[in-house]
Each structure stands twice: as C-alpha cells, then as structure tokens.
Amino acid sequence: MRQLALDPSQFLGEFYISFWIPTTVLTAALVIKLPTIIRLWRDPLLRAVGGLLLLACAVFVFCTPSTIHRVNQLTGVPNMSAPWCYSLITAMSGSGLLLIVTWRNGLSDRSAVTRRTVRRVVLGYLGVIVALWVLFLLADAPVERVRDLDTYYAGTPFMREEILLYLTAHTVACTIASRLIWNWAHTEGLDAWLRWGLKLLGTGYALNLVFDAAKVTAVVARWSGHDLDWLSTNLAPPVAALSAILVAAGFILPHAGQYLHDRWQVRRAHRELRPLYRLMRSASGDTVPFVLHATPELRLTRRETFIRDVLLPLTRYIDTDLASRSYDAALTVGHPAQAARALAAAIAVLDAIEHKRRSPEPAEPATGPDPTDLLRDIGPLSRALRRPEEIETVRARVTAPTTIPLPLPVPE
Question: Do 52 and 182 lie in a common domain?
Fold first, then answer.
C-alpha cells in the first residue's frame, strides 16, 4: 500500500531517459539516409527527411539542461535558450508536416492544392517562430530555469503566450501528421517494411500528443493555483525521448529492413544452390575461384554462372523419356507439379552425369532437350537434390520392371 501512495514525480524519476539516447538514434537515422540525400539532393522528399532528422537532433541537443545553461551563459541572457528551443521544436513540427504531405502525396503530385498546402505550412510556422522571439523580447524572465521554465513562467505576461504558442503549434502538427500517417499505414498495397515503419512513426507522433497534454495540463494547473509540475518536468521529457526513438526507428526500418531482407534473400539463394554447385563441381572438376572481398551478390552471380556453364553442355546427355517418366512417377507418389518437375530434373541430371562418365561423347550429338527451363530453374533443382530419399523413391518406381498380371482363374 505504501508503494501505491508513491509521489508520481518520484515514480517517473526512475524511468528517466537521457536526451542523448534519442539524439544517438536520430543521428544514426540521419547517417543512414545522408548518402542518399546528398546523391539525390534535388529530391524534395529526401530533403524533407534530412531536414526533419537534423532538426530533431538539434532539439534534443539544445534542450538538455546542460546545453540550456551553457547557451544562457554564452549569450548573457538568463533564459535565451527558451525562444531558441521553442523555435527548434516549432521548426521540427513544420518540417514533419512538410515531410508527411510530400511523402503521402508522392513526388509526382505537383497540383496547386499540394503547393498551396506546402506554402501555408512554411509561412505559418515561420510566423510562429517570429512571434516566439517577439514575445520573449516583450517578456520579463530574469530567473534562469533549466528544467521547469514552462511551469515557472506559466503566469508571466508574454512568456505565458509564448509557451502556449509553441505547444499549440506542436500539437497541431503532431495531430495532423499522426492522422495522415495512420490513415496511410492502413491503405492496401504497402510494402511490409514501409507499413511497420509508418506504424512506428504514427506511434511516435501519438506520444508527442501525450507530451503536449502533459505540458498544457501542468501550465493550466498553475493558473488555477495547483501544482502539477511533475507532468512537465518528470513525465513530458521521457515521453518526448521515447517518441523521438520511435520516429527515428520509423525512418530507419523501411530502409534497413529492406536492405537486410535483400541480403538475406541473396545469402539464402547462394546457400540453396550449394547441392547443385557441388554436383556440377564433381561433374566438371572445376571450382569457382574464391574472391576474399566479393560481395554476396557477386558470389551468387558467380555460382549461378558456374552452374549454368557446366549444366549447358550436360543437357546433351539428358534422357527426355526418363525425365518424363520421372515426372509422372513423382506425381503418382503424391508430389505437387512443381516439386515433381524439380525431382524429375534432378533424376535426369544425375543420369546425364553417369551417362557422360560412361561415354564422354553422346551417341547422337546435339539431340538433348531445350535447356531453357533447366537453366532457369536451377533453384528448385538444387533444392530437390537436398532430398535424396525422395529422388530414390521416384527413381525406383521409374526403373522397376513392369510386370504383366496373371489371368485370374475362371470360377467353375
């Protein structure tokens, strides 16, 4: 029962998230995107992504208490960090809206509505930033506050309006962006990685609304003489940090996820070709030269090329009748058509290798089947070689002697 009566500020203090953690994650996202941004600088979508990530990093760097105090000292103004941090947050909010509008509508959308929307967002948030500085110049805030400025000056003329202005601008941007993202995430035909990235972005923007609600509640409580400062000083910062981590992950996931998926596909294809590669190596006596710094894509291409180079002349020894009977036998055993076709090809290739060993030159040159399908379907063929027991089962049915059933005796 004593734990239930714990002060919320003390409870939330245990879950403090350093602002340097989201800064690191956001910087990682920016580094991943930076080469593409530089290479395709004319792309407005990439510029919007780069601007948002850069501003988000700046927010968490300049909004840490140590940086706030240092900026105040360098400028000689007790709370100069306030309009500076509020301006960064506002610019980040506007940049997020621009990104969502550009991303959602697509680069091909050059309609007047889109251009007008972008212009309104830019002018609107630039106007908010100008107003923040004007209000700060009009306000009287002589006492430096590095953690609780929002609640400490909640009732101070002009500072009150400045605090409400940046929170309103941030809330409006996060509300619109969150709604657009969630609507987009539930549309049909999206790539799985993009869909999960959008869900992370939507969750991050939704948490930003929790940040705004905590801040506004604490400020309004001050107006009515209540003390809910812990919402602003203890709840809002970790929520903002977690939100930034999710937003950064939302940007990273589609890029990194697709990259890792493609690499995994290449490595899996390379590994699946190993049985057929070993068979072709034993048939030819050659190997693929090892290259120390070869990329996975290059190793896969070299293995595919080697297999096809060995398999092509081997098709002259393939018995098409054996392949046809093997296919029928595999279907009879119960294999699906695709698996039966792969098993039949494996049996025909193994038979061709034995035939070539017995007779280096075929009896009738150039009488083999059309090699197109065989050279194209080396993946299923290699997978079939991983199942020697199935190959033997089908081969046994093909090579088994046909028996003529004896006539049944006629009953007397």
Answer: yes
